[in-house]
Amino acid sequence: RRARRRATRANGSRSSLRRKPTRATSDDAEVADEEPANWKYAYLYDGACPVCQTLKSALEGTGKGEGKVWYVDISDPAYDAKKHQGVTFAEAMETIHVLKRDKSEPLRGLPAIEALFAEVGMGWAVKLATMPAISLAASVLYKLISSNRLKIGGAMGAGVMALGRVGMEMRGEKASCAEGDECRGIADMEVDEDARGAEEETSFESVYAEGPRAILGAYASGGIVSAAIVNVRTGELESELITAPLDEGALLDINAVGSALRSLTKELKWQGSVSVALPGVWHADEKLGGTSMYAAMETLNPFEGRREREETEELLRNAVGLDVTVVTGAEAHGYGHQDLWGDAARRVKIGQTLDSDDPDNAMSGLTGVVTAGHEAVHVALFRDGVLRTNADFREADLAISWIEPEWANAKPPADDCEDEEEWKAWATRMAVHLAKVENCRCARGGLERWVVSGSAARNFDKWSHLVPKLSVVQAGKAAAPLIKGGSNSLEGVRGAAAGGSFRFRYMADIRRVRSAIGKEVGRSPQLVSAIQLRELFEKFGGDINDDAIDLDAFVRMVAAMGVRLPEDEVRELVCDIDVQCESSVTFDQFETWYKSVIGTEVAQVLHTEAAVDQVLEEEMGTGRAVVLQVGFTSCMPCKKFLPHFEQSARDNREKCRYVRIYGNENASTIHLARDRLAVKSTPTFFVFKDGVVTHMHSGSNTEKFDDAIAEQVGVLPIGTYEAKWNPPVPTEATTV
Question: By C-alpha distance, which of 397, 420, 150, 157 is closest to 298?
Fold first, then answer.
C-alpha cells in the first residue's frame, strides 16, 4: 500500500488542483468578474458550484443586466466579507444575497430574487412561479440537479433553474447548492501544473522531521502583508516579493489577515506551507460569542502564548486552506538576523555557546530582539539562536506602559529630522522599556545584546548611542549593547520562513514524541491517563526529588522511547515544558505540556495528507479506530452533519478517534480524497483499523452513520449494516 502511495505522489505531488474553468479565461488562468463602474446590484454566488454557475449564466445570458449587476464569487479565496457589507461565506451559502450600491440593508431570499431577475429581464420567471404546477415541476428538477451538483446548459436549462429557484423561495423552501444528503464535485478538480509547493514525499518513520524544503514567508507590518517563496535550505527567494494592502486597523483583524494571505498564496500559485509574522495572536472569546480577540504575546504567560499561537494557526489554516504557522514580527527578525539555514541552524550541541566572533552569527548567548513604532513595541528572546518560548514579559507591562500619555511626544522622528530633542525623546522611550524587559526574570542578569529591527532600525545611528547613558539615568543601570538589525520587510519575510521551518519540523517531531509515549504505555496518545504518565515519568527520575527530573533525565526519557531530536529541537522542547526557567521538569509541567500537544478538539480538522497518515500511525496497535470524514468546502450536507459527527466523537471517544478533511482544500487533501481514497461525493466516511479501511459510505444520513459506527465498534453484529443499507437486489430466482 505504501509503495502504491509513493508512486502516485511521484506522479502528482507537486501539482495543485483547481476546478475546471467556468468563467472567461485568459492564458488558462481564471479571471474574476471585474466590478462594473456603475453597478446597481451585487449578486453573491458560489463559483465552486456548477448549479450556481448555471443560474449565473442564465442571468448573464439575457444581456440586459450588463454593467448593472456585479457577480461576486464568494468561493474566491480573495473574497472579503468586510468589502461586501459583512456578509460572510457561511451566510451567503445559507440563502441568496443581493447587495445594493447605496449600502442599504442587503436583500435576501425572495426579495433578492425578485430584484435581481427584474434587473436582467427575467421578471417573467417570478410571475410563472406563481402557477403551482409549473413551479413545483421546476423545483423538483432544481433539487435533482442540485443534489447531484450537475451542470446543465442552454436556455431551457437556465429557465428551469430560474423557475425552480424562484418557486422554492416563494414556498419558503430551503434553496442551497446541495439539496440532498451529499454533494458531488471532487471529480471536477484538475491539476494546475504551474502551481508550486504541493506536499513533498516524507516518511513518518524518518530519523527526524526535515520539514518542508520551501515555505511561503509572509510579514505583516505597517498596513501591508509582504510575501515570497523562500528556500529554507539556502535562504534564497524562489519568487518575487509581493504585497497585499490592509485597511487601517485591519492588521489586528484575523479575518483580514487571512484574506490577505489567501490572496498572496493565490497570486504566487502556492500550495505548500505558509509561515506568517504577525504583531500578536488571537483567541476565541466565548463571552463574546466566539469572537476572535487580539492579544500581544508580551501580555501572555508562556502557556497562554503557546495555546493562543496554536489557536491563531488553526484559524489561519481554515481561512487560507493551507498549513500555516505563526511567528511574531520580533521573532521573525531574530531568525532573519542570525541568517542560518538548513543544517547550520541545528549545529549547536546543548550547553555549548555560539562563537560570538563568528561573522555568520550574532545571536550567541541570551539575545533580545526588539521592534518598535509609536503604537506598540514587541520583543523576543533567543538563547544561542533558539527562541525562548518560556520567556515571560508580563512584568514589563509593555502593552500598557508603551502608550502611556507621557510618551505622546516621543514618537519615532521622521527620517530627515535633525532635532536632537526629538531623537532623545525617542531614545528615552526605548531605554526605559528595554530596561523593563531586562528586569524580567527571563532576562535578568544575562542579556548580552539587543538586536534592534524593523522600522526602529531604519535610523538606528541617530538615537542608539543615547540609550546607554539614558538607561543609567532612567533605570539605574546600563542597558545591554544595541546592534542594528534588519529594517526592511525582506528580512521579515525570510525570517518568517526560517522560523516557520523550525516550527514545522519541531511540531512534526513533537507528534512523534506524542505517538511514542502512547506506544510506550500501550494506549492511544489521546487516552493516556495521568497515572500512566506518572509511571513513565518516574522511570527516568533524576537526582532532584520524586516530583521532578533534571533536564538530562528528560532528554534520556525521550531518547529511550526511540525518538531522536536534533539539538535545537531538544532545547525548544525543554523551554516549552520548563516554563519557570528552573532547569528541571516537574510532573505537573510534564502533564500540562502533554495535554497541550494532545489537543482537545473532538473532531480535528486536518489540512494535509501527511497529517492523516500521522493519525493513522499513532493509532496503530491501540485497538482504537480512526473515523475520517471527507467533506467539501461548499458542501451544505457536510456542514449540517458536523454537529452529529462531533457528538458521535464524544460518545465514542474510548473506541474511536474522529478527524476530518476538506477534500478540495488544497493539492494535498485533493490528492488524498480523489486519487487515494477515490471519493466521488461528500460527505464520505471511512473507518480505519490499524491503518486499513474497514468501512466506507457516503451521505449525511445520521441513522446510516450511527449504524456503521455501532457495527465497527462491536455494538451491532457484523453484517447488520450491509443487510439494512445495502440489501441484495431480488433476482428472478428469489422471487419465484
Answer: 397
pTM of the model: 0.71
Cα–Cα distance, 557 to 533 (Å, whole number): 12
The edge-to-edge listing of strands for the beta sheet with 214-221 is 242-245, 224-231, 214-221, 274-278, 324-328
Q: Which residues pair with 26 in a beta bridge?
A: 29
Find the helix packing angle between 467-475 and 420-438, rounded to 10°. Answer: 60
Cell numbers for 396: 514589563
Question: How long a stretch of residues is the chain?
Answer: 736
**Measured between alpha carbons, how far is 588 from 511 in angstroms, rounded to an integer?**
20
The Cα–Cα gap between 344 and 361 comes to 10
Contact 693, 662 (CB under 8 A): no
> How many Cβ atoms are within 10 Å of 256's Cβ, its own excluded?
21
Task: For residue 186, give the nearest of 697, 673, 718 by alpha carbon.
Answer: 673
- Mean pLDDT in the chain? 78
Whole-angstrom Cα distance, residue 185 to residue 445? 61
Pairwise CA distance, residues 393 & 535, whole Å: 34
- The vertex-592 CA angle with 590 and 594, nearest 5°, equals 70
- pLDDT above 90: percentage of residues in the chain: 32
DSSP state of 380: E
Identify the pLDDT of residue 33. 67
- Phi/psi for 556 (5° steps) reads -65, -35
User: Is residue 183 within 8 Å of residue 635, measured between CB atoms?
Assistant: yes
Other Cβ atoms closer than 10 A to 721? 19
CB distance 569 to 505 below 8 Å? yes
Q: Is 19 helix (H, G, I), strand (E, B) or coil?
A: strand
Mind listing the pLDDT tens digit for each residue in 172-186? 554 444 445 666 655
Beta strands in 534-655 (DSSP E): 548-550, 584-586, 603-605, 625-631
375-411: pLDDT as tens digits: 999 999 998 888 888 889 999 999 999 999 999 999 9
